[in-house]
Amino acid sequence: MTSMIVTAPPAPAIRNRKALVFLDPEDGPEHAARRLAHALDAEGYTVRTAACGDEEQRRVEAFLDAVEPGDLLLVRWSTESGWGRREFGALMAEFARRVERSDGAALLLVVDFGWLITVDGGRSHETVGRLRVSGEPVSAAAALTTSATMPGERPGRTVSLTAILADGILSGAADLDGDGTVTVGDLFRYAEERCAALGADRRPYLLTYGEGELIGVAATPGPARHLGPAFGTALARLAVTGDPVPPLSATELVGRVYDVHLGENARRLLRRATLLDDDEPLTPDLAYLLTRGDPPAAGDEARTAETATEVEEAVRELLAWGLLGERAPFTDPAVRHAAAARLDAAEHARVAAALRRRRAAHRAVRPRTRITGDRWTITDRLGHRVHAEAVAAFIRHPDTRPPLTIGVKGPWGAGKTSLMRMIQDVLDPGAAEGRPAPIHLNRDQTAPTNAEVLARVRTPRDGAPGRAVPGTLPLREGDWRPTVWFNPWMYQNGEQVWAGLAHEIISQVTDRLPRGERERFWLALNLARIDREAVRRRAYRLALIRLLPVALALCATLLLTVAALAAATLVPSLGPALRGGAAAVGAGGTLIAVVAAVVRLARFLGESAGTAFAGLVSRPEVLTTPPDLVEGLTPDPGYRARTGFLHLVQTDMRHVLGMVASAERPLVVFVDDLDRCSPGTVAQVIEAVNLFLAGEFPDCVFVLAMEPDVVAAHVEVAYGDLARSLPPGGLERSGLGWRFLEKIVQLPLSVPLLDDGERLPSYLRALLGVRAGAGEHPAVPVARRGTGEDTSVLELVDRLEARIRALRPSADDLDAVARQVEETADAGPAETRIGGLSAATRLAADRVYDDLYSDEKAYAAIRRVLPVLSLTNPRELKRYVNVFRFYSFVTYRRALAGAPRAGDDEVAKLALLTIRWPHLLTLLTRDPGDGPTALDSLERAAPASDAEWSRALAAAGLTGAGEAGTRWEALRALLTTRPPVAPLARDVL
């Protein structure tokens, strides 16, 4: 044997030890690669293991490139898959190049088999050689491999170099010189002795650079200790599996079993079981929970059974090694200590939380006393935000013109108020939470003075206050809509309903004005309906009162002057002095009085009008019979008279609406809880809305929350005499109450269903404050903006809009294009995403959709249902077109949120069903649980036989058993047409 050691500069001291061990594709019973990884881990190496595959070269390059000064890097490469001489030569050449560029202390490559013997059988082959390294790198390097003892093919009898090295490190037998350190040279000589002793047809080879033979790989372990009877089973099983090296300690034994011999499920179960209490045995359900991370899921029996089988195998594997106890999780505390060291922080937290929940479920836990309040919220826990954005986008669409009424229908407790509050929050950020955006009539925010009151009295002005402009907004000014919230159930009679509506509109709009602007607004409005001369007289009277002390002082001055002059006449000797004093008193006193009068008058005129004319600069009380605005003034006679009360309310609202509302930017009035009102109040609200729709206040959009069946019944009661005088119409014809609703509710929309699949569990978790578990859908993200949002959001929307337009989408593929832009752009925070699209992307898509949607498509879809339309009333036809457009927009927004895209034919059919049979919508779309809805059954029966159609009508409650049901032929004709709309109706209606 001949050695070739090339002298090189001494390698730096080793500070860190790292290893990359590739596992063999078919690991033998001795688990050679795993044993080497375990041995290195026990020596303090940072060990990474990887499976052999296509990424080997890249992994090795990345591992070697990450070297730092002072590192020892060890790579174990498996070539048992059939490498040839060329591949091995390329590997060694690449390793040499890496040594040349390395800054580490040492590099060591272990290859089980290498082609180092040439075909020249007569040549002597040296077992120690030099790596072909150019230059003088600072790193020491070595490569350990084996090759055939004779030239030729790969030997048939194999001896694993990796297994030999692992045994030498674990047992310390490789420390042949007994210096306490196992070097590369020691490992090479130990491998030579083992191969010779085993009679193998392989021979170890060593290639080095620098002090490669002297690289310290491991320290010699101490003597093995007696482990006791608790580990007898594990020791016996080690011997059976071909692991002859006795473990040094119980911890090392458990670590070797874990690293080398256990399967993945058994390893996971062992380390997670360390979180069990000492008196908590590993039961089957606990083993399932620890292995999977959550308890068995209901309804997934196949997967549960498969996982249970894997868990049972893992438990049997741990029992076979004698690691599990009978009444405790483990046979010995050393098992817990060794396994716990392999549990990382993230896994510890996740499994500990699951165990904590399980333990709480099996013991008596004090329930929380917190009661969930029944109050609206704009935090989206039900997935309603997408519907709120759809309605808001429709309201502010350039083609949407007031007056307009949208009905949000749903049963009590379905979330109508929360949905309307979300719509309000989108249209008017902050208003739903009592922080509406301010508006301005002018920039003069100082309070009006008495002088201004007199000036306005002398010069009458138009009562119109002018057009207000919004202040700083978190959205484009064109997207902002002023909003008002009205609860009619707070008012008990017709006059109070009118007064309440006026009060809410007037107060909520004017309260947005700064104080000075608000007082000027009320000053102009109040001066238009009172006796201006009375105001002037009152101002003069108040001014005279302010000047009264000055007048008294002036009178006193005159008296003193007259007295002095009289005394001068009576006493001639003092005449000159008295006359001089009288002149001084008269002149000085008069001057002082004049100055004082001017000062007091100026102070009076400069005072806030809220002192002398408080009634003129504040909102009048319209909830009761109005008093005098200013005591002593004579108001407009119509202000006091009951007959003029309606005129007063209309006048006030007209001025307020003229300030903030226009056809392009209407005022949106939300009317909540209409179904809670008394029949008389419901009728009065309907009449009030009709007044708006008739053109008295055209620049308004009403959003009504109600349960339509209840409201229709209230109308029937309120107009009982009229309802009884009408001829009966039957089920196919709506009653009086429904006719009223058809008139005022132009665009009906249902609150989305709380289906059991996703929203119901998410909402329940949100109520209880429970986070989503593994495999569960989290609560619906919140996607809303606040009034303090940065204007950068608006710039982001503009950029996204430009990108979407650049891709030239059509109305049909707009949602796909929007998702493409979302993936390639930073579109905002993930928590605002619904259906994969952020709030900014959805708004940008809305803007593009406004320009893409074509009325030609609407006409084509509506024309296809003309044969069954049967609408001869122009108003009904107009209403149908509006409903079609509204549902088109709603379904488009639902598609952006991930719902299936509804076609124009479906929307046209759904809109016709809404217009013709509004009183049947609740019946037809009522959630039946697991079965089909009545509409679904009717759609299936419509093209079938008459008998089947009759049975479907009877099952829906539209006819009695056995009745022909010919009066429903129009409905049957509609439902016979394709496509079916029952799924869409369930979500929209």
Automatic annotation (TrEMBL):
What name goes with this protein? KAP NTPase domain-containing protein
Q: What are the residue boundaries of the KAP NTPase domain, all occurrences included?
A: 387-885
Kindly list the residue ranges recorded as spanning the membrane.
547-571, 577-599
- Position of the signal peptide: none
Read off the PROSITE patterns from this record.
EF_HAND_1 (PS00018)
The record's annotation in Pfam families points to: KAP_NTPase
Q: Which organism is it from?
A: Sphaerisporangium rubeum
Key words, A-Z: Membrane, Transmembrane, Transmembrane helix
InterPro entries, per this entry?
EF_Hand_1_Ca_BS (IPR018247), KAP_P-loop (IPR011646), NTPase_KAP_P-loop (IPR052754), P-loop_NTPase (IPR027417)
